[in-house]
Amino acid sequence: MTNTAELRSITKTFDETKAVDDVNLEIRQGEILALLGPSGSGKTTLLKIMALIEQPTSGEVYLYDEKVNEKNAERLRLNCTMIFQKTTVFNTNVFDNVAYGLKVRKTPKERIQNEVKQALKLVGLDGFENRRARRLSGGEQQRVAIARALAINTKLLLLDEPTANLDPKNASAIEEIIAKANREKGTTVVIATHNMFQAERIPMRLALMGKGRINEVGTPAEIFGKLSKTLASFAAVENTFTGNATSAADGTTFIDIGSEIQLQTTAQPEGLVNVFVAPSDIILSRSHLESSARNVFKGRIVEISDLGKLVKLRVDAGKSFIVQITKRSFNEMGVNLDAEVFLTFKASNVQVI
Amino acid sequence: MWQKIIIIAALATVILVAGTIIYFQHFTRRRLMISTTTSLDDTGLLAEIKTAYEATHTVDLNFIPVGTGIAIQHAQNGDVDLTLVHSPSNERTLLEGGDGVCRKIIAYNFFTIVGDPSDPAGIQSLNTTASLKKIVEFGGNYSGRLWVTRGDNSGTHQKEQSLWKAAGFNYTTISAKPWYVNASHGMGDTLIMTQEFSAYTLSDTGTYLKYSKDCRIHLVAFIAQEKALLNVYSAIAVNQTKHNSVDFDDAIDFIKYLVSNEGQQLIQNFGSGNYTQNLFYGAVQPLKQNSTAQIVQWIKDYAFLNGTECPQQYRDGHPELYD
Amino acid sequence: MNQIIDGLVKALQLIFSGNPGVYDITLRSLAISGAATLMALLWGTPIALILGLKNFRGKFLIKGFFNTMLGIPTVALGLILFLFFERETGIVGFLHLLYTPTAIIIGEAILITPIIVSFATSAIETVDPQIISLAQTLGASESTTSITVLKEASAGILLAGTACFNRAIAELGVALMVGGNITNLTEVLTTAVSRHTQIGDVEVAIALSIILLIVVFGITITVNFVQRRRK
Questions:
Q1: Mean pLDDT of the B286-293 span
Q2: Which residue in A23, A37, A30 sits closest to A4, CA to CA?
Q3: Touch between chain A and chain C (3+ CB pairs, < 8 Å)?
Q4: Could you give the CA distance from residue B222 to residue B120 in angstroms, rounded to a whole number?
């Protein structure tokens, strides 16, 4: 199995700080590799180096066994493309944005038309061709960026937290598109993310980053198996818990994660397992919600982080849960530190790693 | 990327310049560059001459109107092929410096002292020197403004200074007097200022007549034709030996036109439809006839250099101009 | 005051009677200043790209140079150019450019190049640096990336171009010195105003000034209009 890319002893220093510190990494053809790590751990810089738009201070980058240097960088860049965390669109209409990469590759006009149309359809922006890209909403712009990257069909696709600003529905739609590209076209994907994919369904590797270094690389099972002993590393992925599984009569499973909390999941693991709940899957409310969701817990807000359009809260319900809601909802709810809140999430949201 | 644009920019510049050179060398008529004074150009005479001349000659006359001093300088530097000025002292410098040849006196007119109709200083019917003296005397007790000068070292201003000197005054002293105003401007504005102050000033005929006709001023011309106020126009070709890129032949042709009957008629008749007086008088006929008329003597006294309109050594192979 | 009103009336008369002299002078002004603006854009854009996108030692010196040149007294520039173009003693005198429209074009172009360099560099610097990364990651070569940056900065550059043109067409000193104000050849709106003011044809002078203002106004409005349509 050939490697799409290889990083050897890559270090990148900015003004005396090492953003990336002696990283060695193989990116295997056709795989999905997720970079996990807190903000500031160097994920973005590493991705940029992989995308050949940032030169490492020392170390070598290989793309399809060809060593990258100043002369061939421009040519080799055509093999990969990166989607940035902060969405950037050109000051033209959607069509011209999505067609940019194709025009650069001197694609014939007719084919451009087709590819753009297809790409827009994939991301659900049918008919948006003539809209001015800068006038779209943040989520729509992000989808334009994705369409733009998909249209050029590169062998290597790099994404920097592509779904961070999307609502859950769009986020999973995008995840599905990326997974599909990987499945059907064999696109190699490297993605920096806070949230986990539906780990069971998609074969992937994880690389945990911290302070510019890569600490662990492996399948999710491997990593979380090891890490159950090292709690500190769990900061990489939010809302991960370990507990014993007990089957229930209706086909669900209870996981006892301690502090008298039993998470109910639709999965059917056995024994000691690692599970997680995506922060955006948890519904926050001031009072008890009547719903069919199986997991309901009461807790107190102990930390609030303002992320612009989103607000991240840490709720202590015996165990710490990270919850993510929109700013609007937060304002409407009118809650603050120490407020008593309810956490509600479905059994299907409890995912087994 | 920028290298490409810089190359295009350089190319464009080269094409522009080359195009200009080719255009002017091959596609247009030859240009005769003539430096002249603004006051002469402003009268409109040159425009008429241009139209007439270009109809019968394959040359374009390009007049460059500037101040007298600069007109002479252009000739000294060889920037022009011919100069048309009215300053004998500067013209002498031009010839003696070796830059000018073939001087021909082509026309004359008079400056005039104009002033408020009420004639505060009472200079009516006095000659120039007496008038100036009267003005200075009157100014001693006068609390207002009595004289406006152009103050810009133009031909007119230089003439004015020589008049004060001839009347026995020190110009620096005079110009410091409280009744003496410096307009620092062209003739027109100076006239208007003179009107505002109900004062006097020295003006060339052309501008005065024009402004009067347009009813912009209601000043009276107190002194008309007097020797001291004579204003003589000459044409001088630039010496081709010293400045070899000048178009000497066309310059001589033009001078010949100016002194021809046709040219002289045009000058003499200029503005006849619009004004009751002559703006210019042709100088060639009177000088040729060398009559005993007063004007001939005046011109000789004022504008001849070493007893002739153009000393032998500056006639540069065109004796026929001086028969 | 009366003269200004008379001037206004005269201006309308001259324009609507289709006075050929006036049209001739106006067209010449437009052509000369237009050409000068084009030249300045050609010279200035690459410089602005380099200043805006690249970092090198002494960059601030060059920037400072152009910013200073913005304030050059135009008579000084006119004089220097005159000395350059002078037939016998000028460095490029042999090109016989003195007293030609080309001399004015070159003169005005030199005058306005600092404007385009300063404005355009600012405009380019304001472009989000991530645009460059974006262009690169989509496969753009260095020249394509530069063009993309220019397109993103196009609003600012268009503004610069307009400022250049307006400055060029309103220039008197340089046009007078190197052009010579020769009728039917190098007489432009500004030098014509100067000439008629001297003669005392105040109405015509005011009329020509008004025409100049109308031209400048017209161009500025048109450019603004085109900008808005693009948005």
A1: 80
A2: A30
A3: yes
A4: 12
Helix (H) / strand (E) element for B92: namely helix B88-96
Q: Which of C136, C152, C231 sits opposite A90 (nearest CB)?
A: C152
Second CATH level (architecture) for the domain B2-109+230-322: 3-Layer(aba) Sandwich (3.40)
Cα Rg, chain C, nearest whole Å: 20
SS percent in chain B: helix, strand, coil, step 5 = 50, 20, 30
Give the residues across from A190 on adjacent strands. A33, A158
Confidence of residue B301 (pLDDT cuts 50, 70, 90): confident
Nearest to B229 by CA among B148, B137, B155: B155
CB contact under 8 A, C130 and A84: yes
What is the average per-residue pLDDT within C201-226? 87
Q: How many residues does chain B have?
A: 323
What local confidence, expressed as pLDDT, does residue C188 receive?
93
Which among A211-215, B38-42, B104-108, B302-306 has the top mean pLDDT? B104-108
C-contacting chains (≥3 CB pairs under 8 Å):
A, B
Read off the DSSP letter of residue A132: B
* CB of B24 closer than 8 Å to CB of B17: no
Kindly tell me the burial class for residue B172, based on how many C-beta atoms sit within 10 Å of its own C-beta (0-12, 13-18, 19 or more).
exposed
Residue whose tokens read 């662990």? A216
Per-residue pLDDT at A231 exceeds 50: no
Fold of C2-230: MetI-like fold (1.10.3720)
Fill in the amino acid letter for C132: I
Interface of C with B in 174-213 (CB under 8 A): 180-183, 185, 195, 197-200
C137-147 pLDDT tens trace: 999 998 899 99
| Beta carbons of B154 and B85 less than 8 angstroms apart | no
Q: What is the ipTM of this complex?
A: 0.78
From C200's Cα to the closest Cα of chain B, the distance in A is: 5
Its pTM stands at 0.75
Distance from CA of C9 to the nearest CA of A (A): 46
Q: State whether CATH 3.30.870.10 applies to domain B111-229.
A: no
Residue A155 to residues A150, A167, C172, C220, Cα–Cα distance (Å): 10, 28, 61, 48
* CA distance readout (Å), A275 to A194, A205, A251, B302: 15, 17, 17, 116
Residue ranges of domains in chain A, CATH in brackets = 3-221 (3.40.50.300), 238-352 (2.40.50.100)
Q: pLDDT, tens digit, for every residue of A149-206?
A: 999 988 999 999 887 767 767 777 788 888 888 888 888 999 987 655 544 456 688 8
Computed on alpha carbons and rounded to an integer, the radius of gyration of chain A in Å comes to 21
Contacts of C152 in chain A (CB under 8 A): 90-91
Residue C57 CA to residue B210 CA, distance in Å, equals 63
User: A74 and C141: CB-CB below 8 Å?
Assistant: yes
